[in-house]
Design brief:
There is one protein chain. The N and C termini lie far apart (45 Å). Helix 6 crosses helix 10 (277-292). The protein folds into 2 domains: 13-59; 68-94 and 108-309, Orthogonal Bundle (Phosphatidylinositol 3-kinase Catalytic Subunit, Chain A, Domain 5), CATH 1.10.1070. It is an alpha+beta fold. The chain has helices at 64-82, 112-117, 122-127, 147-166, 209-212, 217-235, 238-247, 254-257, 263-271, 277-292, 296-309; strands at 13-15, 18-33, 41-47, 52-59, 94-96, 101-105, 110-111, 177-179, 185-187.
Length: 311
């Protein structure tokens, strides 16, 4: 006997990505397929609270590595929040259900590449997202962007610059840097970690000139301060992150299994535990400034866009 399941109306069940949330139906008119090689599709669930929860179903990708990295980012976010540091990170949820299937929480946002292709700067794009509720905030009249939105951009940019450096996230380009209407910047697609990168001579930290265009002298100072403060706090928990990666050495996660004997050392080296706080901060500052002026990432972005045009 074959049982039919009515996806349009069913008894509430826990959402696999977040079991604390219960869903009662799939909204069929909001299903869509993305234009990419493996054709992932988006479907939107309706919760018992009447809210919408969009999810991407992916086929052909091993999402275990993404799931691990996002769990680490979530832990970093919790540690920082306990110290009253909120860097406006977006640790979206990922659930790998097999080596080829998985679910990803969809966050409404735009890739920086798409924003720039429309001949916007990031500042101009955010100005188009000003709502009636924040339009009265004239604190940042010189930029035309409300304080809360600008604050979210600076903090999230600093947070992800640090996080992607510490975890050695590779293959960074403007298609996997996304911007929310709130001003929060975040990264997606963690197929290369622990220093691996498909491009030769990758930068240790990705800080593009398009990202920094938003920052005047004061905002740059805030950006650096957020990076330094978070770095010092996370250094104190370096062994926690090392232990978590140690537990995953035999999980056959691609970039950990590749050099399993070096994984933990690579991670600890990023924290520069051989230096005191002052010297570690100075090291990070030099790294940020060298990344801002780097030419190679701009060249890689050009060739990445060129290759996409011929797909």
């Amino acid at each position: 006997m074959i049982l039919k399941f009515n996806f349009l109306n069913f008894e509430p069940i826990p959402l696999p990505l977040d079991p604390e949330i219960k869903i009662r139906r799939i909204i069929p008119e909001k299903i869509r397929i993305f234009k990419s090689a493996k054709l992932p599709f988006l479907f939107v669930c309706e919760t018992t609270q009447g809210e919408e929860y969009p999810i991407i179903f992916k086929y052909g990708d091993d999402l275990r590595q993404d799931q691990l990295i996002l769990q680490i980012i979530t832990l970093m976010d919790r540690i920082l929040r306990k110290e009253n540091i909120d860097l406006k990170l977006t640790p979206y949820k990922v659930l790998s259900t097999s080596l080829k299937y998985g679910f990803v929480q969809f966050i409404d946002s735009q890739p920086l590449q798409k924003i720039l292709e429309r001949n916007y700067t990031i500042r101009q794009y955010l100005q188009t997202k000003i709502t009636v509720t924040n339009a009265e905030d004239t604190t940042l009249a010189e930029t035309g962007i409300p304080r809360e939105m600008m604050d979210a951009y600076v903090k999230s940019s600093a947070g992800y610059c640090l996080v992607t450096y510490l975890l050695g996230i590779g293959d960074r380009h403007l298609d996997n840097l996304l911007l929310r209407d709130t001003g929060q910047l975040f990264h997606i697609d963690f197929g290369f970690i622990m220093g691996r990168d498909p491009k030769p001579l990758p930068q240790a930290m990705r800080v593009s000139k398009d990202m920094m265009e938003m920052l005047d002298e004061k905002r740059l100072s805030d950006f650096l301060r957020h990076c330094f403060t978070a770095f010092i706090i996370l250094r104190k928990h370096a062994n926690v992150f090392a232990n978590l990666f140690s537990l995953m050495l035999d999980a056959n996660i691609p970039d950990i299994a590749l050099e399993r004997d070096k994984t933990v050392k690579k991670l600890l080296d990023k924290f520069r535990l051989d230096l005191d706080e002052e010297k570690a901060t100075s090291y990070l500052k030099d790294l940020i400034y060298s990344s801002i002026g780097a030419l190679l990432p701009q060249v890689y972005d050009y060739f990445h866009n060129w290759s996409l045009a011929f797909r």
